[in-house]
User: Fold this.
Amino acid sequence: MSDYRKEGTYEKPYLTMNGIATLLVLLALLALEVVLVAAVRNPVLIVADAFAIVFIAAGFFMLQPNEAGVLTLFGAYLGTERKAGLRWTWPWNGRKRVSVRARNHAVDTLKVNDKRGNPVEIGAVVVWRVGDTAQAAFDVDDFEQFVHVQSESAVRHVAARYNYDEYEEHRAGEPAEITLRAGADIVADALREELQVRVQLAGVKCEEVKITHLAYAPEIAGAMLRRQQAEAVIAARTKIVHGAVSMVEMALRELSEKGVVDLDDERRAAMVSNLMVVLCSERDTQPIVNTGTLYT
Assistant:
């Protein structure tokens, strides 16, 4: 990269003339040509004036807003004109218009392997513009195609550095793992930085990158869905058990503190078992009324 940047071509300003003022001069020469042909009839003056008209007419070029003109002289880069409107330069100067407007490029959905090797589908949209017109015109063959190819390469490279999802709970005090699904904004920023390095050769500035599609590949989507469902069930069960234990503990404490009933260890264990079944069961439990004594 360092060697290239020493030898690369970089944009420099080049001043051209105001096209409106030059157009007025051209109109004056045309009027003079009419007078010379009709009244003076001097062949030398007629030819000279005609040559001046052709000379001036060949130097006009038009630039739209957010459009730049790259000027060359016999293959050598002269500079870039960024002023919009009608401009005029020497007729022998080559002129190439380059748009510096913001552009969108949608990266088609790609199948890549995440950090664990699971195949995932990912798509993105890239917002970019030409920053250096000289590099865009001379340092790459086709800067638009260059951006398209490098965008796909950057998406593949960055997606392989992250897991699709977090598979294990992070320990207390440790930062959460950055994943493609949970850390989409962070991944998008990393993708923009990666792409900026890649397209710098073409004088392109990467404005923004957003992930537009993210999913498991079809061949593992079913298995991963069942896995996510199992994780959800486990998480729900864990929360239910924690809540049930707290409720049983509270019930035993309240009964003991208020002296409602005095339970030995065996009856206490039976009560805990019954309460846990009632609180953790997926179905409504059917109560059984004991009409005898507590110990029959």
About this structure: Residues 222-280 form one domain.
